Amino acid sequence: MMPHDAPPPSSPGVAAPLSPAPAPAPAPLSPTGRMRGGTVLWVTLAVFAQESVWNFYDAQVPTQLRHYLTSAGLVGLFMGLDNVLGVFIQPWTGHLSDRHARGRHGRWPIILAGASLAAVPFALIPRAGSLPVLLACVAGFAAIANAFKGVTETLVSDYVAPGDRSRAQGFVKAGVSLTIVVSSLISLLVIDRSTTVAFAIPPLLMLVMLGLSWTFLGRHHARTVLPGPAAIPADAGPAAADGEIPPPWAVVKDLVRAPTGARALLMTGIFCFAGMWSALRSLLTPYGTEVLGLSRGEAGALALPGAVAFLCAVVPLAYVSGRLGQIRAIRYGVGLFVVGLLAGVPFPTPAVTVVSMAVASVGYAVFAVNALVALWSLAPDGRGLGTYTGLYTVASASGMAFGPALLGVTVDLTDWRYLFLNAAVFGAVTFAVFTLLVRRNPGGAARGGSVPADSPG
């Protein structure tokens, strides 16, 4: 049955009217060839809000775990296991949000309720007096925060037209890079004085920023959301023909059965790159203390120059990627990521490490801008994008679950000194995956809008 707030389906091959009979359809906030800056600003603020917590989590929770654990492999394992919860939660919360995306309140109730609940276990992390209590706080935060993480990221598809999404993602990811700056400054200025205060700041920022975003954008959702898909493709399947949002399992089956497997291969690439980036971020602070001889606060700020490089590069990269095609651009970004890591291997000093992370961060910026948009572009039609965002998060969360543990095991087998070299080897595997994907999609994925699944571009 079609949800009560979904727009009525149009007949196959006939464009849906912009003004349904009951009420006028809202005007798109992203006119052709031009984005509305205020819309992108408030969407960026919402993503910034949740990522401010996640970046501080990645920077400082490993050190909390090291109060009870000495093995880098175990630290990486526990940093990754919390993301396993997201694998099971994300597609279903994405599907739920799709059913209400164009209703009166849209996806916002899921986002606001999730943020309020997730703030509690996060703030309690430094107060945990034993490993079981600490793991309970970490798992509680991860379960709740993963539930609305992908829903927040899907806001781009609600308010920005397909042709503008790569550029919009550039601005969104620029905002995300600022959360690394904020996380690094909290590490540098607060964590050595009070861990309790330091862990209270990110969730407070999250709630304030999401409140502002909802006030200026979400509160007017019914008037500002983009219209639904104009038409339903003839081959979209029975669920689509009935006007229903396809359930997660239907999307997964369609993804796996695609003729060239481009979406499945893209998911594999997302798994690999997200895993290595998460591993590097999770183990960078211990690397700074073990190899570079820095204090915990100084080591936690090692990512700051990389965040600045990310911020400076991400918007220009978003525009360049529109010309190259998202998948081809990601391949170049992975190559730059590997080069950056290799640059940090010969001389393990703070200065060289900072330069290495800056180069690697620019490579990651290419991936961050294009990966989700590429998956949206390979979707069969414009419905169910929340589910596809959930599957993106499944791939990235799975990588985050195994990446830190896998890289940590290599550190146990070799030494902290070879962290960057080990990460570069795994990065080379990711480069091979995207090289194969480019060969299967010569056009480098869509350039600006949705295309049929597994289209050459």
Task: Describe what this molecule looks like in 3D.
- The protein is mostly helical and 457 residues long.
- It is 70% helix and 0% strand.
- The chain has 17 helices and no strands.
- It has helices spanning 37-65, 72-100, 108-124, 131-153, 155-159, 165-191, 195-216, 221-224, 238-241, 248-257, 262-290, 296-300, 304-324, 326-343, 350-377, 385-413, 419-440.
- Helix 1 (37-65) crosses helix 6, helix 2 (72-100) packs antiparallel against helix 16 and helix 11 runs antiparallel to helix 15.
- The relative contact order is 0.16.
Mean pLDDT: 77
Strand content: under 5%
Structural class: mainly alpha
**Poorly predicted parts:** 1-33, 229-242, 446-457
**Would you report the number of β strands?**
0
Q: How far is it from the N-terminal to the C-terminal residue, by CA? A: 34 Å
Order of helices and strands: HHHHHHHHHHHHHHHHH
Radius of gyration: 21 Å
Biggest beta sheet summary: none
Helix content: over 70%
Principal-axis shape: globular
The number of helical runs is 17
Q: Briefly, what is this?
A:
By secondary structure, this protein is mainly alpha-helical. 70% of the residues lie in helices and 0% in strands.
